[in-house]
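User: I'm preparing a small set of examples for a lab meeting where we compare how different chains pack in three dimensions. I only have the primary sequence for this one, and I'd like the structure in token form so I can line it up with the others. Please keep the answer compact; I'll paste it straight into my notes.
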Amino acid sequence: MNRHSAPSAEAAPARHQRIEHLSSSPEAGFPGDWYDLNSADHFWFQWRMAAALRQWRACGVPLDRPLRVLDVGGGRGVVRDQVEAATAWTVDLVELNHAALEAAAAGRGRHLYYDVRHEAPELVGRYDAAILFDVIEHLEDPGSLLAAVGRHLRPDGHLLLNVPALQVLFSAFDVASGHYRRYSRASLLAELSRSGWQAIDHRFWGLGLLPLLALRKVMLRSPTAETTETIQRGFGPPNRFAHASLRALMRVETAVLARPPVGTSILAVARRGSGG
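Assistant: Understood. Below is the structure token output for the 276-residue chain.
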């Protein structure tokens, strides 16, 4: 569900941060194999962030102001690190997978083992924005999470969201990753509206990845014995040449298309609706 100021090769080993336990929730059921593939060097994470930053600038989300931001379901902190490297924001990393939190390097914000639905009083109404990148598709009914996230924001706060797109692309990879669904623009807007959000911008990204996801669906049609193998085959580039080619495709698409007509994911920026 998951979001890094990546340290340079010359940097000292990453410091780790004390985890603050604000919830006693059981460990999240998110597949640990996914976290093993999370890296700010992976083309997909770079592509998502490039598209997100372009959208946020277009929507007037202030990247140069010291906003306080909540990254919900942030895993090992890939998005948190990317965001803190590109903005002046301080991002609090929220995760219910303890091993992922332990693996996250220190950032400007806090590391919180915290179910936002418990709504710790000291955090309610304190944030300027919340990031939910590839989280809500893992929940059978994400309404309570979306509503709780909203209560953590100031009245003019932004929700910054990413979800996988196009149910026709749903495959064994989605099943192994714990996805309940992939979204259309209409279904995402309806999900947000039901939870008291009003989208101010929504756009596809990953147009160039559509053939690859269609191929992935065919390749993974026969279920593999191991979830780990399915996730690795479905997400990891097969070699360096493929990875470099996909990065080049990313650079072309993000430079030329601010709003692809369709894509493999949807980014949205939302604010609380008048009744929220």
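A couple of notes for your slides: The domain at 19-272 is CATH 3.40.50.150 (Rossmann fold). The first strand starts at residue 19 and ends at 21.

User: Perfect, thanks.
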